[in-house]
Amino acid sequence: MTDHNSSNNSFNNSSNKHSEYTDQQLSDLYQQAPAARSPQGLDDTILARASVQAERLRQQPRGERRPALLSRKWVTLAATGCVITLTISLVIQMPGQGPWLDDSVPETVFSPFDSDMRLERKQKVLGQAEAPMQVTESRERLEEVVVTSPSEDEAFLDAEQTEYDAAEPAMPEPALAEKRVQQALKKEVQSKPLSLKSSVVSSPRKRALADRPTVSETAPNMSMSDMVGDMAVESTAEAEGQDVGAEWTLEQWLEELTTLLRDKENDQALDLYERFLKQYPDYSNSASLTDDERKLFEQLDALKKDKGEKI
Amino acid sequence: MGLLHRLRSDEALMLSYQQGDVSAFTTLYSRHKDRLYSFLLRACGNTAVAEELAQDAWTSLINRINHYRPEAKFSTYLFTIARNKLTDYFRRPAVSRTDSLDQMATDDNYEHDKVMSASASDPESQLQVSRLLVQITHLPEEQREAFVLKEEGFSVQEIATITDVTAETAKSRIRYARNRLRTELRS
Q1: Is A19 on the interface with B (CB under 8 A)?
Q2: How far apart, in whole angstroms, are the C-alpha atoms of residue A120 and residue A114?
C-alpha cells in the first residue's frame, strides 16, 4: 500500500507512463495479461486421480486415515503404560525402600510377609548371605565361649542375640534351622565334660528362657522373625533339657522343681520330677523330708496322678 | 452439496476430502487451479512445463492428503508444494529439461501471440504486457517467483512462508524485481 501511494504521487501524468512505471502500473500491466487457464486435459487427469484417491480413502478403516495423529496417540498410550508398569515393578521389588515402611512403624500393622521383606533388606545391608549355616556356626562359637569362659554369660547372651538378629531373615524354614541347631548342640554337648555342660544348664539364660512367654502367647503381636527366633530358642532349650540334672545336687533339683511348680510349668515339672525319681528313687518317701519338701512332692504326685488320669 | 462446498473454507474442504469426499476436492480444485497454473506459467514461461509442474503439484497434494493438517492456509500449502516443484525443475540439468527458459525468452514465442490476439483493442498496451511477461522470465529465479506470487495476490508474509525466507527478504526480492522490470521496460 505504501508503495502504491508513493508511486501514485510520482506518476500523475499519463504522458510519463512509459518513461517510468509505478508498482501499481506494473501490477495493472500484469493483470492485463490474458488469464492463464488450466488446460482441460490437466483438470481431467487431476480429478480422475482425486477420485481414485477418494475411493481409496473411503475403503480405508477410519483409524488409518490419520496415521500421524493415531501414532501420536499410540505413542502417548504406550509411554503411559511403560511408566505405570515401571512404577509398579519398582514398588514390588523394593517395598522396604519407602519411608512408609520404616522400622519405627509398629510391626503389628504389617503382615508377616511384610516383615520378612523388611528382614531381607536388613540382611542385604548386613551382608549376611548364608544365614542358615551361620546359625549353626554361631551356635557352636557361642558354646565355645561358654566352655572356655563360663563367667562371661552376659557377653554370651549379647553375642548370641546379635547372631540371631543377623540370622533372622534367612530362616524361612524354621524346622530346618531348628534341626541344625539341635544337631550342633548335641554334637557340642557330647564332646564336652559334664561339669562344663552343667554350667550351661544352670546359667541365667536357662532362667531367662523359662521366664519368657511362649510363642502361642505372643503370636498375635509378634512378627515372623520374632516367632522364628523364639522357635529356635525353645528348640535350644529342649536340646539342653535332655541332660538336665545330670550333675545337679539335691538342693538344685529341689530348687528347680519348686521354681517350675511356682511358675505353673506343670509338664516340665513332671518331666523333671521323673528324672529326679530316677536319680533319687527313695528320697521322696524318706522320713527326713522337711515340710516344704513334703508339700513339693505331694504337689508333684498329685500332678502326676492327674496327668495319668487324663491319659 | 456443491453450494455447501462453495461456502466452506479450503481447510474444511481438505478435511472432507481426507474422509473420501471427492466433491470437496473438486470444489477446492476449481478454486485454485487457474491461479496455480498461472503462477507456474509466469514463473517458468512455458505452458508444457507449467502443465507438468501443476500436475506434479496437485498429484503430490492428493497423495499426501493423509498428512495435511489445517494449521496454515490451504493456498499457502498448495503453492509451497508448487514452488518446490518449480525449484526442482530449475535445479535439473539444462539438458534434461523439456524446455529451456532462456531459449524460450530468446525465441520470444512465450505468450506473445496470445497477448496480441487477446487484447487487440490497445496495441500499445498489448505490447507493454507482452514485454512485461517476457521480462519477467528474465528475472532471477527468487525475484521472479516473489514478484509473480505478489501479483497473484499473496501477502508478503505468505510469500515468505511459501519461499521459506523471512518477510524482509521476500519484500526485498519483490522490490528488486520491480526495479529491474522498470528498467527493462523503460529501455
Answers
A1: yes
A2: 10
Chain A nearest CA to B111, separation (Å) = 9
Q: Which residues of B touch A43 (CB under 8 A)?
A: 29, 33
CB contact under 8 A, A46 and B62: yes
The nearest CA of chain B is from the CA of A36 a distance in Å of 5
Asked if B15 and B70 count as a contact pair (C-beta separation under 8 A), the reply is: yes
Contacts of B115 in chain A (CB under 8 A): 33-34
Alpha carbon dihedral A297, A301, A303, A309, in 10-degree steps, equals: 180
Written as one letter, the residue type at B162 is I
Q: What is the pTM of this model?
A: 0.46
> What is the residue-level pLDDT of chain A in tens, covering all 311 positions?
334 434 433 333 333 444 567 888 888 888 888 888 888 888 999 999 999 988 888 887 665 555 555 567 788 889 999 999 999 988 887 766 555 555 554 544 445 555 566 666 666 655 544 444 444 555 555 555 444 444 455 555 565 555 555 544 444 555 666 667 677 776 665 654 444 444 444 444 444 444 444 444 444 444 444 444 444 444 444 444 445 666 778 888 888 888 888 888 888 888 888 888 888 888 877 777 888 888 888 888 888 888 887 76
On whether the CB atoms of residues B119 and A32 are closer than 8 A, the answer is yes
ipTM tops 0.85: no
